[in-house]
């Protein structure tokens, strides 16, 4: 009984220390959702901490999702003229990550007998988004319209974008700004029609990007 009480007390102490540590860490977080921290200039992505999550409806049973990483690109930004901002980012399709090795192989499988692949194929190249217009919705939100090129086809996309934080990166010491964005696209518009409608044509995208000032 005494051992049980001591074990419980120790566990409680560890939990308290952990919570205290987290609280202390949160108090010194380098980034904050404070637009006054953002300065004008040209920024490039932090590829190690930028990603695109995609989600489709699978057979009407449940949503299935994966991610693309290694996002590269540039942002030009002036807090005093948000609507003049420009974004140009590239996402290597081969960076796609899913829990199933078999599905990943299928996504990057070449077409049978020289035909078109079901999804991206063995040499998928880059997806690229280039902005054409920015419309400010408030202090921290904007609509970014642009063109997405993927699978050799280009089409319009509008991103609902939200500022998520700014500050100095403690590792690189670079001024850093972060944004999240969401949109929904029809994959068939980029020539990816495999298994529609059993696997939804609509693909929900959630984007999280950190940019470092140059």
UniProtKB/TrEMBL annotation:
Signal peptide extent: 1-26
Gene3D superfamilies given in the database record: Lipid/polyisoprenoid-binding, YceI-like (2.40.128.110)
Domain Lipid/polyisoprenoid-binding YceI-like: 42-212
Keyword field: Signal
SMART domains linked: YceI
Protein name: YceI family protein
């Amino acid at each position: 009984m005494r051992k049980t009480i001591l074990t419980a007390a120790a566990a409680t102490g560890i939990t308290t220390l952990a919570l205290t540590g987290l609280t202390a860490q949160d108090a010194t977080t380098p980034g904050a959702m404070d637009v006054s921290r953002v300065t004008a200039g040209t920024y490039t992505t932090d590829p190690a901490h930028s990603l695109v999550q995609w989600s489709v409806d699978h057979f009407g049973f449940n949503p299935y999702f994966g991610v693309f990483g290694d996002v590269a690109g540039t942002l030009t930004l002036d807090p005093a003229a948000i609507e003049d901002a420009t974004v140009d980012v590239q996402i290597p399709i081969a960076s796609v990550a899913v829990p199933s090795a078999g599905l990943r192989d299928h996504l990057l499988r070449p077409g049978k007998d020289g035909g078109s692949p079901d999804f991206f194929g063995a040499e998928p190249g880059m997806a690229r988004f280039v902005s054409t217009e920015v419309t400010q919705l408030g202090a921290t939100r904007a609509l970014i319209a642009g063109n997405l090129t993927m699978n050799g086809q280009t089409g319009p996309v509008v991103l609902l974008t939200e500022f998520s934080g700014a500050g100095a990166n403690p590792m690189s010491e670079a001024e850093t700004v972060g944004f999240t964005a969401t949109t929904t696209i029809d994959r068939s518009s980029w020539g990816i029609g495999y298994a529609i409608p059993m696997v939804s044509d609509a693909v929900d995208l959630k984007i999280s990007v950190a940019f470092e000032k140059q």
